[in-house]
Specification:
It is a single chain. Helix 9 crosses helix 11, helix 9 packs across helix 14 and helix 11 crosses helix 12. By secondary structure, the chain is α+β, with helices and mostly antiparallel strands. Strands 5-4-3-6-15 form a 5-stranded mixed beta sheet, with no helix packed on it. It starts with a helix and ends with a helix. A hairpin with a 2-residue loop joins strand 1 and strand 2. Helices cover 37% and strands 18% of the residues. The protein is built from 15 helices and 18 strands.
Length: 462
């Protein structure tokens, strides 16, 4: 009798273990099925590690960016389009880890829980994805960069639609250089990196927008202040003190003109008046240092650390130097948040797919800016253009913006422009960062204007 009872318990235990294992397998199949199918060892959709069978990726107007023909992935015929959209689409081997072909590969092959990849196996085509990007606008931005490393990003600050996200250096996917992985000269450095999402750069004077916001919110009489720019801001003579150098001698200058003329004396002074704690709190409230996901790709965090800094360090940090590093897409959301009255929308790239999992119009929860401050800084950025850069520099755009020329010794400066159009029918923000490109006004501004003018034409507004 005891033996029979023991056997019953053993059988029951085996049954429990069996069903537990079955339940675990079912759970992992549901949760990890997409990953299993998309593994590069799946020879149904990969050949020697390269994706061969998947749907077509279109731009926002239906232009084919990449498709499958006879078991081969075929890119667009236009070289400028291929190069300018490379880092968005990604290569077929997955080296560009933030590309749509990598992050959305299960969507492209049409995988679903019920039918698996039956659709792609029966049609050899997979499922299509339409992006928000515009192929012509992207090509115009790429050509305007004129071989410079860096990135150009444009998005609709009301919806989050990303019309352009160009990153360089790049390569032609139809003519991959033989030495792309062996070159030692540095010409291909970071070539698989989408600099808009995965890059951080010294922001230079574009960061004065952040310091200006902090001053507006924390220094009640900031618009009544008058500063005296002699070409340098002296923090003192004690150990660790020194001078923040300005590019010009502006003489007596107020807060608004200090931003439009990009006076280092004004903003180094404001940074020290604000102090490390208040300036850091503004940086945090504007979303810098927080994680943001853009179409399943995690944008690299910006960094701002002035803990233990001297007055000299804090002065340089207030003008976008010191150890400050920013991500271009986070600068884009800063511009979008200002333009949008204090609400920052997260960029997205996928407009439509068989199983749309992208998020449209999602607000950045890490971004906090009052409507009053947003309106004030917006007027200042508009004043920058009308009083200093000139409206003729951006014909028909009603631009607001800020240039930056970031010092990155021993190399040449980074050239920046961040801004947005305040036209109601043209709600777009733009960020240009040309790595070691030189002057922000001389180099980045023309690129920004070129891409925005291309977008005006694409939208039928010119």
């Amino acid at each position: 009798m005891k033996n029979t009872t023991r056997r019953v318990y053993i059988v029951l235990l085996l049954v429990v273990v069996f069903f537990a294992g079955l339940g675990f397998m079912l759970y992992t199949f549901i949760t990890d099925g997409t990953t299993w199918v998309a593994d590069r060892g799946n020879e149904h959709i990969y050949s020697e590690g390269s994706l061969t069978v998947a749907g077509t990726i279109f731009d926002r107007k239906g232009v084919e960016l990449i498709s499958t023909v006879d078991g081969e992935r075929i890119f667009n015929d236009d070289e400028a389009v291929r190069r300018s959209t490379l880092h968005i689409i990604g290569d077929s081997s997955g080296y560009i880890s933030t590309g749509i072909q990598t992050l959305y590969r299960s969507n492209l092959v049409g995988y679903n829980f019920t039918n698996g990849i039956y659709g792609v196996l029966s049609s050899d085509e997979g499922c299509d994805i339409r992006l928000t990007v515009d192929a012509d606008v992207s090509a115009a931005a790429y050509e305007a960069m004129d071989g410079n490393k860096g990135t150009v990003v444009v998005y609709n600050y009301k919806t989050g639609e990303t019309l352009c996200m160009v990153s360089a250096p790049d390569y032609d996917p139809l003519d991959i250089p033989d030495d792309i992985d062996t070159d030692t000269t540095g010409k291909y450095e970071g070539i698989y990196l989408n600099r808009a999402i995965s890059g951080v750069f010294t922001p230079g004077s574009t960061f004065k927008v952040v310091t200006a916001i902090s001053a507006i919110e924390n220094i009640p009489d900031v618009f009544k202040k008058e500063f005296n720019c002699t070409g340098k801001y002296t923090t003192g003579s004690a150990a660790g003190d020194g001078d923040v150098i300005c590019h010009s001698k502006h003489g007596k200058i107020n807060f608004a003109d200090g931003l439009s003329h990009s006076c280092n004396v004004v903003f180094a002074s404001l940074a020290n008046e604000l102090g490390a704690e208040r300036l850091t709190e503004t940086v945090r409230k504007l979303g810098f240092g927080e994680n943001v996901t853009i179409s399943k790709a995690d944008a690299v965090r910006s960094t701002f650390d002035v803990s233990g800094s001297t007055k000299l360090d804090l002065g340089w940090a207030g003008i976008g130097q010191y150890t400050t590093l920013v991500n271009p897409c986070q600068m884009l959301m800063l511009m979008g948040g200002i333009a949008n009255g204090g609400t920052a929308v997260i960029p997205y790239l996928v407009e439509d797919s068989s199983e749309l999992i992208d998020v449209k119009g999602k607000m950045n929860p890490a971004f906090t800016l009052s409507p009053e401050t947003a309106l004030t800084i917006k007027k200042m950025l508009r004043y920058n253009v009308t009083s200093y850069y000139a409206d003729e520099t951006f014909p028909g755009l009603e631009m607001c913006g800020k240039t930056g020329t970031a010092e990155v010794p021993p190399d040449e400066d980074h050239a920046w422009f961040v801004g947005f159009s305040q036209r109601n029918d043209f709600p777009y923000a733009v960020v240009v960062c040309l790595e070691n490109g030189g002057s922000g006004f001389d180099e980045a501004v023309p690129v920004a204007n070129t891409v925005m003018q291309a977008l005006l034409r694409a939208d039928g507004l010119r």
